[in-house]
Amino acid sequence: MVTRRSVLGGAIGAAGAGLLTTGGLAPLLNAGSAQATEAVTVPAPFTVKMPTLPVLSPYNVLGGQDTYAVTIKEVAREIIPGVQTKVLTYDGHFPGPVLRARSGRRVSIRHRNSLTMPVSVHLHGGSVSPENDGGPMDTFGPGTSRTYTYPNQQPGAALWFHDHAHHMESEHVFRGLSAMYLLSDETERSLPLPAGQYEVPIALRDARFDEAGQLVYQMDDVFGRTTILANGRPSPYFEVAARKYRFRLLNSSNMRFFQLRLSDGGQMIQIGTDGGLLERPFTTDTVGLSPAERADVVIDFSRYPVGTKIVLENTLGPGTPDQVGKVLRFDVVRTAADPSRVPDVLRTLPAMRTATVQRNIVLSMDEDGREEPRGLMDGQEWDYQRIDQTIAHGTSEIWTVTNANKIIPHNFHMHLIQFRVLERNGAPVAPAEAGLKDTVRLFPGETVKLHATFDTYKGTYVYHCHLLDHSAMGMMANFRVR
Fold first, then answer.
1. Which of 227, 289, 328, 467 is the most exposed place for a label (fewest CB within 10 A)?
2. What is the pLDDT of residues 12-51, one digit of tens each?
3. Which of 383, 362, 365 is nearest to 374 (CA)?
């Protein structure tokens, strides 16, 4: 298990070639400028089918609670056709399965750890008590079990769960320990959105393989991970009917940012983000996702004749268009009735309370090429015993968060709460950031202003960069609500 190994010096050396810029991530490289190649032959794009993710079933639904049992284990799964790759999984599924929950109904999950290292399961975006948060030091060891209880006393949201064991989280998630947790509420269920087989969760990520087809983990390996996976398969195709689909997108990468578009420039309707539905949908031709961010998007394929093939492209590097530009292809193969629609109003967000405290948070990382760079939050590496921010329960605060780096992008995630993004670089935010969020991107030099209310649980939680390689390097801090 690698705890701190970096190719940061190479990243900085390549910055002048246009891989990274002070404005963030640059467009894709020309095909002749590749920085990394896979050691195993990855199939040509769109030659494998994208699977739908399995849905976990509770073994008990009595007492107002859905109860699950999950085994965390290493298995071999086919990612590249004909090759068995060792991965870390929840119940043997790569990528992780989907758990569907309902607001107001508890979920209890007993995780049994059959690995040889400790783990911690964090419900990302969940409003949960400290003992159920899955903090970085709150791990359980090999051969033991841990039960997490989630009250789901929050509006519907596209949550997910993943490993959070400090100094191991980045490698464990890279090797497969992440899964979707889709929480719905009555407001969402009352809307005539695409549903059933026409609501499709898609986990996006990148990967790197060796000559035997095994995953290669190196910390901060931003240039090496140049195979794009959609639901665990490399640049697959997905057959659709000529009607509307709802896609629940998750960027489960450790480091990679995506900027997604349809190859014909066609429009998509974004209806939600991390914290659930937006108040109003908006039409767009591009969707951006930093690591851990989610987007809820409707695509209407009725505008295409049967036989059309439309590629979902990624326009951000590092990597070449051939390596990282082709995410998946939608193949329109049939017609179908479509009673669904996207209403003009999706929900009403609660009014923001008056903020009584303001805080400034600075994310930074050594970018001088040193062998073991540090990830820093307000100039300090994470210390699990240090309380960095003390917050009075029931108050609202405004946090101004800045990426102080000149080359390296970050993002910012807070445990326990969903926040509102008030400003980006002093300007009003775009529609995609106008809803509830728990993760927000920060390209080099950017500043965002957040509004957060701490009125649920008391206790100690963390905030950190969710480029997990960075948080494993120390870019994390503690806040205590009391």
1. 227
2. 333 322 333 333 455 554 333 344 445 678 999 999 999 9
3. 365
What is the torsional sign of CA 100, 104, 110, 115? positive
Question: What pLDDT is stored for residue 39 in this prediction?
Answer: 67
Partner residues linked to 437 by β-bridges: 419
- Side chain identity at 100, as an amino acid letter? R
Q: For residue 370, what are its two tokens?
A: 């040193």
Residue whose C-alpha is closest to residue 343's, from 285, 277, 249: 277
Can you say whether residue 63 is alpha, beta or left, with left for phi > 0 and alpha for psi between -120 and 50 degrees?
left
Phi, psi angle pair for 58, to nearest 5°: -70, 150
Domain 8-40+192-335: which CATH class? Answer: mainly beta
Give the tens place of pLDDT for each residue, 67-106: 999 999 999 999 999 999 999 999 999 999 999 999 999 9
For the chain, give every domain's residue range. Answer: 8-40+192-335
Amino acid symbol at 199: E
Q: State the Cα–Cα distance between residues 390 and 382, nearest whole angstrom.
A: 16
Percent of the chain scoring above 90 in pLDDT: 89
Neighbouring-strand partners of residue 93:
90
